[in-house]
Amino acid sequence: MPPESGESAHFRALEQLYAEAPINRFFESSLEIPESGVARIRFTIDDRYYHAGGAAHGTSYFKMLDDAAFYAANSLVSDRFLLTTAFNLLLTKPLTSGPVVAEGRWISGKRRVFVAEARLIDADGEEAARGTGTFMRSRIPLATLPGYRA
To answer: Is 134 helix (H, G, I), strand (E, B) or coil?
Structure first.
């Protein structure tokens, strides 16, 4: 099979960048970018992520929503790493043990500032949280980041 090129190669390189990010040693998860402006992160909640009340701590919600929205936006940018500048979060249901999918979608912006949203879907197919983020181009070239191999 020939090596991927263009947009597809960029998506695979972002997926590899995500996989190699040091933070993901603490949050076992996998990223999939099926098309431009869309990102999905699959992960499993277990008691390692619980707060004292026996459900997932908000850290897990924020991390996965931010990442899904971020990668949906960065899928549109092949030269620079984006940075989160703001993120609004709405928690609607406690997450307990089981698989969860974070679905991110780009909403607007294609130059300097991007807006993307994400939602968490639990094993029953119910939404547990949603968020909207604002992301901007940084001065960091993607090609200089460990893990990004287009």
So the answer is: strand
